[in-house]
Amino acid sequence: MTSSWVWPAIASVLLWTPLISTIMIRRSGEAKRLTWAPSARAITSYWPNWADLIRCLIALATLVRWGTLVRAESPDAGKLVLLTIIAIAVMSFFIQAYLVLSRRTLFVPLPLFIAAAVFVPGWDLGVFAVIVSWAFCAASKKFDLIIPILAGILMVGGIVLGTSRIDLVVAAFIVAFPQLIAFMSRRRLVLPSNAVLSH
Known about the structure:
mainly alpha, two-stranded parallel ribbon, 71% helix
């Protein structure tokens, strides 16, 4: 694998192709009623989430590996790498979210943000952040909080562990970005689950 731009192009194709969960919800015709907060069981038993997660993990792993190689060859290219990763991830969010859009809700491609949390700041911190945020939300049954909790753990955990600040800021921004858009557009974030289709 080299630092060729072919790799971010491949990652873009993987991320910009509509997620299976997005397609399933759009076909269900329930987009205007997506207001139900799913449970852990509803999210994990929804098979498109697993297929989407695998695809997003491969895409983000490819992006981060490409970025590492580019920065190793040219340290001055760090900003370009980070901006490229942010741009691809943010564009992916808009593609997925606006395919299933209503006046009250905003669809969140959760697998994308889990993948970003795992790979951008480093898989050890990322996996820890995902597990802790997931456990907290499952225990409290408030999965609408998973994104802000995940972003918070990435920032606090990174400061404690001494992870690269730039990578942490990028990871936290990508994860928290849908929360910001939802706040600005006055919409409620909706996570993909089988409860959405059966509501």
